[in-house]
TrEMBL record:
Signal peptide: none annotated. Keywords: Membrane, Transmembrane, Transmembrane helix. This is Acyltransferase 3. GO terms for biological process: lipopolysaccharide biosynthetic process.
Amino acid sequence: MKYRADIDGLRAIAVILVILFHSKITLFPGGYIGVDIFFAISGFLITSIIYPKMLAGNFSFVDFYKRRARRLLPASIFMTLITLLVFAFIYPPNLFQMLAKSATASLLFVSNLYFWQTSSYFSPNLELQPLLHTWSLSVEEQFYFLFPLALFILTLLKFKKNVVLLTVGFACSISLVLAYIYAPNSLSFVSFYVLPTRFYEMGLGALFAVHLTHKPDAFSKIKYLREIGFICVAIAAVQYDRYLAFPSFYAVLPVLGTLLMLIDRSTTGFLYRVLSAKPVVFIGLLSYSLYLWHWPIWVGFEWLIDNTSALNMAAYFTVTFLIAYLSYRVIEQPLRLASFYQSAYTKPSLLGFAALLVASVSFFTLQSNNRFLQMNATGLSAYNNSLVSEPYRDRCTDTKRLKGQFSICTVKEGVDAQYSILLWGDSHASALMSALDNFSDRFTIHAMNTSGCPSLVETRRKGAEDCYFHNQFMQSHLLSQTDRYDLILDVSAWDNYIEYGLLETDVSQVEEMHAALQRTIAFFEVNHLKYAFVPQIPRQKTNIPRAFFRHQLGLNDQEEYVLRSDYDIKLKRFEEMLYPSKNMIALDSFFCDDEKCGGSQNGEIMYKDAHHISVTAGQTISYYLEGEIVNAIEGTGKTLEASAE
């Protein structure tokens, strides 16, 4: 296939969109579609190269995979090794273990499957994984393994063009249907990461390539295809955002836009001149190295500096570009040439490098990086304790995602229990199980928690349809068990849903939360169910265990806290939303003094991230919470007052 400078220009657009999105610059909130542009280009170009050879009978799988390996692997493997070595000195063991495992998955071309299995609403640490971006490389590599084989079989059987088009088109249709059915939400991310739901993005490119192989001038008389395609890509980049259930069918727009730009082979017009301009083409040539290095550099930048000032951002972009350029010139370009591998020193050098890589990955996977950290045992122990998962989480949270069905689980079955309570909520309720687990045997405790789903009646969360069914299930259960529970403890990240704009509504988020709370209160009271809401604890500005770890390394000397006055505003807002009900158990006294709400209390880390309590905090508040719940049930304290006034 003849070289086209405008395709490198299109690669430049793709990588710029991705880098801006990952660096949290909101100019293009849908910048992640840069990956989909790459997918579309890959499907189109690979098919354009191999399909004519298959028709001519001179296609070689060995030659194809050699070229792919020389093109992709050297720079990727080198980036993986350097990332492992650098982060061994700055990462805590829990994050580094994930990094070592993801390195193994990346080298085996299955990092997309690894990140799918470890992804969920409750795994914010995923964004701190320096090799997270390799999921898309694994998807492409899996495509390179499977699609050429399928296309070769079709041509070997001498199927005509229309049969090939129908077969590939049918596969794309199945892929699109699967992408829609399994669209990512707070319960499952399978559609985002796996080849079957991403195939249509590359498969559509293959369709165009097959058609153009037989009819090269098929689209030559249609004007402005490049411009129309660019508009499609621009709309997606500007209108999409991170809350979209992507890819689903939404990826069709940027993919088709990309393909329209690819099939327009005209060499005139303003857009063509822009895409073919030397600076733009230069970025396109660097696009693979830029993609490889931008993410681990960004993760390291966030971990070490955690400050996105203009100067720091300029430093990030400069370092990323320089390292990508060096990678391109020193590794990517020389090692993609067949002549490089003919030297007498090449094979021993490559074998030695491979041995070093395998030894490094194996060592770090088995031993972690404890020996490389400059941290005392006490500090490391406190950090590790803050990350301990709450008891019963695997059994009592996200049961739909993990087991395929909603279910009520038992946290505690008290011996001759006096009280029976039901915990209903999202991941904040799940975190609170660390407190409930320490209750005395006079309690029987059941729970039903789904991460990212507000525990409210008739309420929907954006991009998470299953949240509605989660709450429907809970309502049905409560209606069938109205005499079973002495108290319903309703716990969710109320402030988060409002401030991140996560509720589906035609009014403001505050108004919708108010209405939803009132609907839920009405449901409880009509059905004679005793209840108590737990307000959200103060949300910190940063991940508290991370800030603690960075402090131990001497990278951060500031105390992490939010002002008590700022938290009081949110607490008062929640109280007003409940009014006239006063059924509320607040935990602010454990997290705040008169002036501030800190991330640590008496030397203990109270959070497992920026807004979920740690197991240590749960144990601290357990006795108080048990007493307040008894008061709520028996009506002997001030926790609950009559709703009607």
